[in-house]
């Protein structure tokens, strides 16, 4: 009898390594035929270890220069936490969260940005200390005082918000050992949705008035990745429509293959075991409001 896992992988769309891009460049692929929209905001959630038994969630939201950066620190993503603005290009800010003293040190005064993105790609730094211990480092411009620190953290969620366009381009790595992949989503006025990964079209959805919601499984870097879309408001609302696209990796315990896990036959379970899922959310709005 064939395994359930092999059935999932057979039905999933496979993205060959020969099409994969290398992670040395943080710039997303731009279609030569269309100009993708620039994200208005980018929100990243990191899980940072503060001790062998505890961790905190650090949420960073990158906006344009006038709005600056916002940060939240929490021990539970389902709990509402206060957000703090880091408005200056360089500075430090202290506050209390989760019964700990938090200090944030940042410098984006010489940061470089690509294609108008609010998130810097180089020449910046952002450091978070919890009770005087460094638990988070971001950027390539870390000073000598902090560069020897080796905090443990990983990205678990990324949300990009776009305004008034139908072509969305981004770059994402779905596991720590995987490659950075170019993702291009194109919505055609003729009622079609095209999704490309690493310059290769992986699937197309036609007749969106009937298929405005759906999902597709993609096999990428040895992982099952669910790609889901909801275009109802975008298709049926003329002025304030919104489209939502999500890519989410499955862990070994969330792949709906638990029957085989009990019998010890679950393939690829080591990849998901003990690792956090990663999700990429793309929100597109016809209008800012």
Automatic annotation (TrEMBL):
<dbReference type="Pfam" id="PF05910">
    <property type="entry name" value="DUF868"/>
</dbReference>
<protein>
    <recommendedName>
        <fullName>DUF868 domain-containing protein</fullName>
    </recommendedName>
</protein>
<dbReference type="InterPro" id="IPR008586">
    <property type="entry name" value="DUF868_pln"/>
</dbReference>
